[in-house]
């Protein structure tokens, strides 16, 4: 196949929507040893980046056949290792897909999940390994989870939440400069803080006063943009899914954890901006996770709560999740563009910070 036959152009919703969705289905792959969750864009293939400040989607065609697609976005972020403490313009590549019958023909290179993607980006496009955050997924069951009476959970208004995040999270990797736009987006359900009951935190840090231990997180309703569905699952997982629901209905007094019905597309909440301070704040993070679970339980469409944390972040020890649904290493690769070599060297040669801010708009 010669490159002259290949046409790259912008995505056209009217012309390309059905064919892009078909390509996404044909490209679904995943490990056989654990359950695999796939996305269902509900007829809007560009929905995952639509809320980003700048975004673009390209398609590759051979004649009348659509053989590849790629999505990308650009935003300003704070980089912990930037020696000048300046903001960096960061581009994200999301959802590179090439039709199985047209792989290894250079289409992925032109468009600029699996071992093939790693081979493409690291060996052919000169990207290097940057971070390996963990994606943590926790099912939502029909029982309300109890929160200790010794813990206070309070809602934080967006302007207070922005001040809190800018004070404590700008030193994390990839903190977005437009955090205010994220917090006031219609998909952001709110920000909540947890602290010991009896301690005062009336102004949420605006006055410089903080409890001895505290935790904060925000919630994004990703299910309003796209759905998840269970694509593949090992036989033991399938059996447990069915049996747990049956036992839960027959013997509710046992209070056994049950798995929701994952075999139809379902929504999910994404927890972002998870942060904690204080030697005993881990239990406050767990309390907030219970709070979000109980909030998600009231949304019949929401079947899981998801978050993403740094691979070595102690947060993962305090966030409930199921290993069979989670991903312990989500490989992120990075490459310097023009005039950014110095920052790139700092990023790749210095050990990464343990904490990470994952923008819910790029989930």
From TrEMBL:
Stretches assigned to the N-acetyltransferase domain: 6-198
InterPro entries: Acyl_CoA_acyltransferase, GNAT_dom, Plant_NAT
Top-level taxonomic group: Eukaryota
PROSITE patterns from the UniProt entry: GNAT (PS51186)
The protein's name: N-acetyltransferase domain-containing protein
Native organism taxonomy: Eukaryota, Viridiplantae, Streptophyta, Embryophyta, Tracheophyta
């Amino acid at each position: 196949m010669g490159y002259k036959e290949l046409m790259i152009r912008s995505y056209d919703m009217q012309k390309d929507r059905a064919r892009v969705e078909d390509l996404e289905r044909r490209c679904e792959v995943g490990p056989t040893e654990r359950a695999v969750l796939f996305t269902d864009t509900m007829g809007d293939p560009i929905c995952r980046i639509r809320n980003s400040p700048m975004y673009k989607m390209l398609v590759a065609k051979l004649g009348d056949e659509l053989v590849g697609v790629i999505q990308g976005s650009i935003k300003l972020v704070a980089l912990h290792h930037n020696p000048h403490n300046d903001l960096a313009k960061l581009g994200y590549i999301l959802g590179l897909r090439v039709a199985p019958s047209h792989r290894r023909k250079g289409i992925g290179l032109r468009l600029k999940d699996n071992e093939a993607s790693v081979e493409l980006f690291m060996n052919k496009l000169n990207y290097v390994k940057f971070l390996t955050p963990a994606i943590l997924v926790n099912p939502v069951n029909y029982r309300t989870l109890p929160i200790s009476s010794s813990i206070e959970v309070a809602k934080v208004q967006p302007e207070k939440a922005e001040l809190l995040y800018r004070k404590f999270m700008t030193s994390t990797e990839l903190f977005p400069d437009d955090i205010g736009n994220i917090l006031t987006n219609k998909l952001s359900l709110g920000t909540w803080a947890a602290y010991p009951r009896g301690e005062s935190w009336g102004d949420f840090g605006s006055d410089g006063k903080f409890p001895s231990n505290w935790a904060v997180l925000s919630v994004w309703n990703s299910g309003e943009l796209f759905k998840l569905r269970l694509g593949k699952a090992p036989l033991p997982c399938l059996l447990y899914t069915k049996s747990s629901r049956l036992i839960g209905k027959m013997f509710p007094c046992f209070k056994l954890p049950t798995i929701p019905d994952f075999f139809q597309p379902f929504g999910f909440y994404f927890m972002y901006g998870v942060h904690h301070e204080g030697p005993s704040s881990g239990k406050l993070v767990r309390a907030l996770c219970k709070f979000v679970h109980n909030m998600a339980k009231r949304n019949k469409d929401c079947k899981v709560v998801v978050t993403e944390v740094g691979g070595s972040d102690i947060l993962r020890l305090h966030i409930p999740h199921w290993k069979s649904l989670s991903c312990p290493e989500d490989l992120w690769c990075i490459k310097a563009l023009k005039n950014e070599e110095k920052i790139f060297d700092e990023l790749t040669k210095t050990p990464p910070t343990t904490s990470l801010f994952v923008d819910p708009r790029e989930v």
